[in-house]
Amino acid sequence: MKQGKQRPANTSIGTGGETHQTAGAGIPRLTTQQGTPVSDDQNSLKVGSRGPVTLEDIQLREKIFHFDHERIPERVVHARGFGAHGFFETYDSLADITSADLFQRARERTPAFVRFSTVAGNKGSADLARDVRGFAVKLYTQQGNWDIVGNNMPVFFIQDAMKFPDLIHAAKAQPDCDFPQAQTAHDNFWDFISLMPESLHTIMWAMSDRGIPRSFRFMEGFGVHTYRLVNAEGKSTFVKFHWKPKLGLQSVVWNEAVKINGADPDFHRRDLWNAIKAGNYPEWELGMQLFDQEFADNFAFDVLDATKLIPEEDLPIRRVGRLVLDRCVDNFFAETEQVAFCTANIVPGVDFSNDPLLQGRNFSYLDTQTSRLGGPNFTHIPINAPKCPFHNFQQDGHMAMHNPSGRVNYEPNSWEGEGHVGEGGPRECHETGFQSFPAEEQGLKSRERSETFADHFSQPRQFYISQTPSEQGHIADALIFELSKVEKLEIRVRLLSHLPHIDPELAARVAKGLGMQGKIVPSIPAIKPRTDLKPSTALSIQRNAPNSFAGRKVGILVTDGTDRAVFDSLHTAIEAEGATVEVIAPVIAGATASDGSRIEANQKLGGGPSVLYDAVAILPSAAGMQAMLRNPAAADFVSDAFAHLKFIAWVDAAMPLFEKTGVSADMDAGFISVATSKGATEFVVACRQLRLWDREKTLQG
Ligand code: HDE
User: Fold this and answer.
1) What is the mean pLDDT of residues 366-377?
2) What digits encode the pLDDT tens for the residues 624-633?
3) Rounded-to-integer distance, Cα 449 and Cα 457, Å
4) What separation in Å is there between the alpha carbon of 77 and the centre of ligand 1?
5) Distance in angstroms (rounded) separating the CA atoms of residues 184 and 169
6) What is the pLDDT, as a whole number, of residue 404?
7) Rounded to whole angstroms, what are the CA distances from 665 to 262, 328, 553?
């Protein structure tokens, strides 16, 4: 039989005449999974160049077989996520409070991996869904892995793990039609919520701006449950964990979120990736609210109830260390997808409370990894393996990578020797091993909800009255938006019936927004809501603005003829503040500035709408403006920036666009002329407010 024609190295393989590289000095050989070198990765093995493909083509079969199995089940919740590596650094020793190894020595650094996520959407859903965000931290301590699997809200929808599958079923897509995707604005969700008033506190958080964060970097994180810290003497202190972002809090507005989802569904992951790649490492401080049994006994609510928080004003937060994310993953699947968090991963010096939600989670996370990662050996995957020595007699199973060596795989045994490779294998350590806190427990075995969990309205009310009027307006608008998507009238009515217990004005406003005035018949609360809880400033984003524009991004719109000096002074002022710039031009090839120099573009007009930026600058030339006026994307750029309360830097040539858009540069303090370098500084200083909240009043007429 005639030998098939072999393709010589470095020849053209496509129709475009591209040069194809082959293995050689410095370029590794392509091999099969078995290590056999591959000579041709372009063509399957055929009988003649136009004949049938042979079953003997082991290379093709291996490649396709492996591809067929690339997907693993996505997480049943928190499917869409994004992770990064970093470290945690302890400020001072906390030995008086906990024996946890990572807190013993000041300035001790512990490697960390963090995965942020949305909850309801599938793996491919958009980043700006209104949703709770996951904030899961894995700390690779010298005494084992400790996972703080938290959220960006300090409370949860339900009080008992028994209701979790129901909550998630109701929130995710309907089982018959498989939509809506990554939305809570639908009947099933609000049906469940309206029947479960315990969820209303978290609903208030989710409907607030916390549900649409601007960046993972600008979010708080919370451990939610009460945990225990235990010191070397065995003394227990209760603790609630907080992560405080160094760059401060920031969210987007709803109309912006909706548009970001179209313009860049990867907005949050791209933001984190770019910040870390640019060396702008995001940082959070770990805060602890520490309290004893006496505080717990006197606190207005049960500290085991995950629908309640402890206001910072009642119990200050002690900042004990910092978390820095300084390395992107090398491979998304290997690290972010395969990372397996588990609330049960704790270390000596940390322990659980009896929060029934936490107790349920301790079962769930271990269990879910088995179906997601395919067996009991997911701890052997590098991202999940401890970075301290670990030895035990667990063996075999799918994909076992660290089977114990030697003859002994049981304990007790009478074989001599020490350590993993010693004949006797590892031994327990009574002194330093994990010991559960010997809490005294008693009670009748029963399925009942503690009466101390019965107040469902006082803290939602406290949250609401702690917000600025603008933030309260956002909560009302979000409720109106979501409930307007609910088709069944009874569900809307039922949900409305709870709102007067949170705030009568909120109830009236939402009813009006739905056109359902006079339809509210207040529900009957299990116990009378309290109205004496004081507002907590810490619960508002706007009241805790960072007064800095660092870490934010400005979109500068340029055309041919843009004044180079104006562009440069603005660029310099923005970067001096620690913010970044993206240039938007009519074409991606960029623009030729007034002095003939090139201005490189990051986005083409239309591909980089203003929703992607924290503030914008409109710096066209007069001629460039004339051409741009014909492009509807230019008008959208301005009108959205205005509607989303952004600061807008401008030069005179921008006027015709303002006119076309129906705005004018003297409308409010958000328009800042940057024709002079003084203007550039003024603009950046103004941007420290992040948004011109006052403009909302103009917009609302
Ligand atoms: Fe989760 N949750 N959860 N959860 N959760 C999961 O574990 C579960 C809860 C949280 O980036 C799952 O590995 C139950 C509260 C985060 O990989 C699963 C209950 C909080 C992540 C699971 C809760 C969270 C998860 C799905 C009620 C905030 C993503 C995939 C008893 C304190 C972790 C997985 C990551 C993931 C169960 C409630 C946070 C099924 C049963 C409360 C951040 O095990």
Assistant:
1) 95
2) 999 999 999 9
3) 17
4) 7
5) 11
6) 83
7) 28, 41, 21
* pLDDT tens per residue, range 467-492: 999 999 999 999 999 999 999 999 99
Pairing status of strand 603-604 against strand 580-585: parallel
Half-sphere exposure of 126 (CA within 13 A, CB side): 16
Spatial separation of the C-alpha atoms in residues 357 and 516, rounded to whole Å: 36
For residue 637, the CA-to-ligand 1 centroid distance in Å is 38
The set of residues, in sequence order, having a beta carbon less than 8 Å from that of 59 and lying 6+ positions away, is: 32, 38, 41, 45
Does the pTM exceed 0.70?
yes
Whose Cα sits closest to atom 3 in ligand 1? 361
DSSP string of 371-405? HHHSSGGGGGSTTTS-SS----S---STT---PPP
Instruction: Give the model's confidence band at 1: pLDDT under 50 very low, under 70 low, under 90 confident, else very high.
Output: very low
Let me know: does 653 contact 620? Beta carbons within 8 Å: yes
Q: For the chain, which domains are there?
A: 81-380 (2.40.180.10), 454-542 (1.20.1370.20), 547-699 (3.40.50.880)
The per-residue pLDDT for 44 is 97
Amino acid identity of residue 55, one-letter, is L
Instruction: For residue 692, give the amino acid letter.
Output: L
Instruction: Give the residue numbers annotated as catalytic, written as ranges.
Output: 78, 151
162 lines ligand 1 (CB under 6 A): no
Ligand 1 centre to CA of 567 (Å) is: 47
Is the pLDDT confidence value at 416 over 90? no
Residue 118 Cβ inside 6 Å of ligand 1? The answer reads: no
Task: Please say if the pLDDT value at position 231 is more than 70.
Answer: yes
Distance separating alpha carbons of residues 111 and 404, to the nearest angstrom: 26
pLDDT tens-digit map of 577-610: 999 999 999 999 999 999 999 999 999 999 999 9
What residue owns the CA closest to ligand 1's atom 18? 365
Distance 522 CA to ligand 1 centre (A): 33
Supply 609's token pair: 């709408």
Task: Kindly list the distances between the CA atom of residue 214 and the CA atoms of 194, 254, 268, in Å, as whole numbers in the listed order.
Answer: 29, 11, 8
Provide the 10 A C-beta neighbour count for residue 678.
Answer: 12
Residue 136 CA: nearest ligand 1 atom is 43
